[in-house]
Design a protein that fits this description.
Blueprint lengths: L7 E2 H7 L5 H9 L3 E3 L2 E2 L6 E2 L5 E3 L2 E2 L8 E6 L16 H4 L8 E2 L8 E7 L2 H8 L7 E8 L5 H9 L1 E3 L2 E3 L3 E8 L2 E8 L6 H8 L3 E10 L2 E2 L8 E3 L2 H8 L11
Parallel strand pairs: 9-15
Antiparallel strand pairs: 1-4, 2-3, 2-5, 5-6, 7-9, 7-17, 8-9, 10-14, 10-15, 11-12, 13-14, 15-16
């Protein structure tokens, strides 16, 4: 078994400095725009040490920022992506321009709203998205249709299969009726694409509003649509643990 070379992968270092995503960093390398200690790279299969000098187009890479996380109230009618082929508004059209390059933790549908975590650290993003992390996502859901009964709640909490796709248990409680609609609080640990909408439609309920109110330990709180607030470093360390929130090693 070969030893792992010291240092960090070059694409990770570039992403950590906020210059580009790992995928875009690999494209920069393939285009011959990245050099280490003056030698142009032709492959991303390269680890670098803190003492190495990394340049892109001849410009030295900025020192990495500390890990940062923000709570963002994603508005309705807004896509969780950097760009949209259909020309729809994205979260980056809503976010303040002065923020660092941020990546969403998970996603919310175009017509869903509520808490979206944003971070500058790809490792933290992946950590929080992993099913093994098992952080529950909670939603307030307004739906039209017959009021759920005990049997329907039991089906949701037992999990179900729809068109060959298995959906795990969804914690569900009935909050109140509002005219012809019912408000529910629902919690799941591994959200598949449009999961809540699909399972409720399967049970005869049409979702017409979906608000994420919590992602693990992080809460939407009183953030208004479009508002963003940074999580203090100590709070981030306490909630996530590990090295997240600490100052990085400087180059």
């Amino acid at each position: 078994m070969t030893d792992t070379p010291p240092g960090e992968r070059i694409a990770k270092v570039i992403a950590r400095a906020g210059r580009a995503s790992r995928r875009d960093a690999e494209r920069l390398i393939a285009a011959g725009r990245v050099a280490v200690n003056g030698a142009v790279l032709d492959s991303p299969a390269r680890n670098v040490l803190p003492a190495d000098i990394v340049t892109i187009d001849g410009v030295p890479l900025a020192a990495p920022e500390r890990t940062r996380m923000f709570r963002f109230h994603k508005p309705d009618r807004c896509i969780t992506a950097a760009r949209d082929p259909e020309g729809r508004r994205t979260i980056y059209d809503v976010l303040p321009r002065e923020l660092p390059r941020l990546m969403p933790v998970g996603r919310l549908d175009w017509n869903s709203e509520g808490l979206l975590l944003l971070t500058n650290d790809g490792a933290l993003k992946r950590h929080l998205e992993l099913p093994a992390t098992a952080w529950i996502r909670r939603y307030r859901v307004r739906a039209f249709g017959l009021a759920p009964d005990a049997a329907m709640i039991a089906r949701l909490e037992a999990g179900m299969e729809i068109d060959g796709v298995r959906y795990d248990r969804i914690e569900t409680s009935i909050d109140r009726r509002q005219g012809d609609n019912i408000w529910l609080t629902m919690g799941l640990r591994e959200g598949k694409n449009r999961e809540i909408r699909r399972v409720l439609a399967h049970l005869g309920l049409q979702v017409n509003r979906l608000i994420r109110v919590a992602y693990g330990a992080f809460q939407l709180g009183q953030l208004s649509p479009g508002a963003i607030e940074e999580v203090p470093p100590k709070v981030l360390r306490d909630m996530v643990g590990g090295e997240f929130g600490k100052a990085p090693t400087r180059r």
